[in-house]
Amino acid sequence: MIQWFYRFFIELTNHRLSSFVLRKFSHSKMSKRLIPSYLKVYDISLDDVKEEVHSFQSLHEFFIRELKAESRKIDDLASVVSPVDAVIEEIGTILSSKEIIVKGKSYSIEEMLGSEVALAKYLNGSFMILYLSPSHYHRIHSPVSGQITKQWTLGKKSYPVNRLGLKYGKETLSKNFRRITEINSSGKHIAMVKVGAMFVNSIEMTHKGDKVEKGKEIAYFTFGSTVILLFENETFEIDKRITTPYHIKVGEKLGEIK
């Protein structure tokens, strides 16, 4: 019953009109008045924020805020680092059945990537799901240094990607709007699936060129969202300190490429 009601409510509100209205409002100067309440509700610290809070002219501007350069230390070892400030919600294996299991539900990796060719190299590899709540810093950085081999965009939906969305939603991770970046790092491939979230379904790419540097910004979300990392079979060893759920920040070590 709970699952049915949840899906009904989301489908009822998940339309272009509601997304347009919310996007329009969040970009308006009127929305600036909500920033103090937003800070209080989500208990957001301003210590790391690059600009003074009064300089933001809309809720959108605050949401995509930049941080001070020294606020995130990038692990300088031969490691894979977190591309976002987030909560690691799930870690697991990409099954030979072309699925991953998240919160007890199966998601098709083939549908998520939209390509059987892209999928083939990740079968039996590892996946990691990093969830960004509305309180998080929403700029996305590269987890490794390497060469971008392919980028593509899929999906139109904008279902919630929080714990309720993963538990009660319908194929959230493989239906939502998403931008996928595949990186070749020292001959090993990593796919970054950037998944848009409820209503304001937008992911803006800021990086130019086909080479990325570990810890450098490559994109930003315009609403709470999720990043899924996919690793090839037997190429990634997760750091032993990480369990789920696990709070992590940009630049902190996720593990190592083997």
From TrEMBL:
It holds the Pfam family PS_Dcarbxylase. The lineage of its organism: Bacteria, Bacillati, Bacillota, Bacilli, Bacillales. The keyword Lipid biosynthesis applies. GO terms for molecular function: phosphatidylserine decarboxylase activity. Its EC number is 4.1.1.65. GO terms for biological process: phosphatidylethanolamine biosynthetic process. Keywords: Decarboxylase, Lipid biosynthesis, Lipid metabolism, Lyase, Phospholipid biosynthesis, Phospholipid metabolism, Pyruvate, Zymogen. Its cofactor is pyruvate. This is phosphatidylserine decarboxylase. The keyword Lyase applies. Pathway: Lipid metabolism; Phospholipid metabolism; phosphatidylethanolamine biosynthesis.
